[in-house]
């Protein structure tokens, strides 16, 4: 499909001001920028979003920052300095959305609560992202991704079966879930404003976002029932579903979802149709309960075959399967290459590869602009607000910007 390059984007003309750091808020606002929104990222002078300093793995830039901050404008502003409030007021007067994930209560202390802002800017949408949400005994508690994974129960069902085999997700899923719900919440608030003419508040709690994602294990453990066991890379309650060793030291990931697939697996992959009448394995619940015995049968058959032969049998059956790819494998994944999912964005270190946003739309092409240097747009934004070059120089000398 050929995508248009000059068609209007859904959020063209929408201005977002963001007091953001780390991942949750920046991931949210980057996705708004993908849809055409102008995102003005407010950062501390001289330091910036602390995610800029997480590492230097991407041509000297931090991997997290590169991922979540393209297509934004960086304005340095010390919000605690005299004169900063006038700049922030001028920005909000022209903005459609304010996003913040400051420390609990910090935005309210700065006069940026929805209640106060709504009086002055009735059309402004305010999105507050926090660890635990407003109110309740955890309101002031610090929250980082791993801690929310723990509080939300994710760690209790992730990792190996041993007491010392807890495992966190390999990416920041609590932050990512909060960023996704903030993003969709802001889109819904923009739609609502189109009907009412008024802005509204989007209140996003990292804990609530991750617990929403935990719906299956929560209901599985309903009313005091035994929770799903930790099963490593295997599925905790469906079997066979997970990694199996083949010859040559490689691993094949496969998954069966129903009895029809179990029959195909026995007949065409294991070439052992007699297993269909084995009472240990004639339902998913029994296969899961007797997974040790079934695993031994599968591993024994796979050990006689090369990895390519195992995959060929699975594909022919057909049974869902996958490779266990490394990050290096994913960079060159043939499906992403064939679908043209990689492009480039500019950055302070030069052009960098970037994955096009998921959910491609036939009516417009995603915005894929540069990753900003710290304070790169301060002068132009302040000039746009009516500040003279002399006033801008004074603000810089005073450490305001």
Give me a quick take on this structure.
By secondary structure, this protein is α/β, with parallel strands linked by helices. Helices cover 37% and strands 13% of the residues. The chain folds into 2 domains: 15-214 and 333-397, Rossmann fold (3-Layer(aba) Sandwich); 241-324, formyl-coa transferase, domain 3.
Structural features:
3-stranded antiparallel β-sheet, 401 residues, elongated, 17 helices, 2 domains, formyl-coa transferase, domain 3, 6-stranded parallel β-sheet, alpha/beta, Rossmann fold
Can you walk through the features of this model?
- This protein is of the alpha/beta class and 401 residues long.
- It folds into 2 domains: 15-214 and 333-397, 3-Layer(aba) Sandwich (Rossmann fold); 241-324, formyl-coa transferase, domain 3.
- The protein has 17 helices and 11 strands.
- The strands form 3 sheets. It has a 6-stranded parallel β-sheet with strand order 3-2-1-4-5-6, with helices on both faces. The chain has a 3-stranded antiparallel β-sheet with strand order 7-8-9, covered by helices on one side. Strands 10-11 form a two-stranded antiparallel sheet.
- A hairpin with a 5-residue loop joins strand 7 (241-245) and strand 8.
- Helix 1 crosses helix 7 (173-196) and helix 7 crosses helix 8 (206-213).
- The longest helix is centred in the middle third of the chain and has 24 residues, at 173-196.
- The radius of gyration is 26 Å and the shape is elongated.
């Amino acid at each position: 499909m050929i995508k248009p390059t000059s068609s209007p984007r859904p959020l063209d003309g929408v201005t977002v001001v963001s007091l953001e750091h780390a991942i949750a808020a920046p991931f949210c606002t980057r996705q708004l920028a993908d849809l055409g929104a102008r995102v003005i990222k407010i950062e501390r002078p001289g330091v910036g979003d602390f995610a800029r300093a997480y590492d230097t793995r991407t041509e000297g830039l931090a991997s997290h920052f590169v991922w979540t901050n393209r297509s934004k404008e960086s304005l340095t502003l010390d919000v605690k300095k005299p004169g900063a409030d006038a700049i922030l007021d001028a920005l909000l007067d022209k903005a459609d959305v304010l996003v913040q994930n400051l420390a609990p209560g910090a935005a309210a202390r700065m006069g940026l609560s929805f209640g106060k802002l709504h009086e002055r800017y009735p059309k402004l949408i305010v999105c507050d992202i926090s660890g635990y949400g407003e109110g309740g005994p955890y309101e002031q508690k610090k929250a980082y991704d791993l801690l929310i994974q723990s509080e939300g129960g994710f760690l209790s069902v992730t990792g190996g079966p041993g007491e010392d085999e807890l495992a966190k997700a390999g990416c920041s899923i609590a932050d990512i879930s909060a960023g996704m719900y903030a993003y969709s919440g802001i889109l819904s608030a923009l739609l609502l404003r189109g009907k009412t003419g008024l802005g509204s508040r989007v209140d996003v709690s990292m804990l609530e976002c991750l617990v929403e994602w935990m719906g299956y294990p929560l209901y599985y453990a309903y009313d005091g029932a035994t929770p799903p066991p930790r099963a490593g890379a295997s599925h905790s309650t469906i079997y066979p579903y997970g990694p199996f060793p083949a010859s040559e030291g490689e691993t094949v990931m496969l998954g069966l979802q129903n009895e029809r697939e179990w029959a195909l697996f026995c007949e065409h992959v294991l070439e052992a149709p007699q297993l269909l009448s084995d009472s240990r394995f004639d339902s998913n619940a029994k296969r899961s309960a007797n997974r040790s015995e079934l695993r031994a049968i599968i591993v024994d058959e796979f050990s006689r075959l090369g990895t390519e032969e195992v995959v060929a049998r699975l594909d022919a059956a057909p049974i869902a399967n996958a490779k266990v790819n490394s990050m290096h494998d994913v960079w060159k994944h043939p499906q992403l290459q064939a679908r043209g999912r990689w492009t480039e964005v500019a950055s302070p270190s030069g052009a960098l590869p970037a994955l096009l946003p998921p959910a491609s739309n036939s009516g417009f092409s995603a915005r894929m602009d540069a990753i900003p240097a710290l304070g790169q747009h301060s002068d132009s934004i302040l000039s746009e607000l009516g500040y003279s070059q002399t006033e801008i120089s004074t603000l810089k000398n005073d450490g305001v910007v």
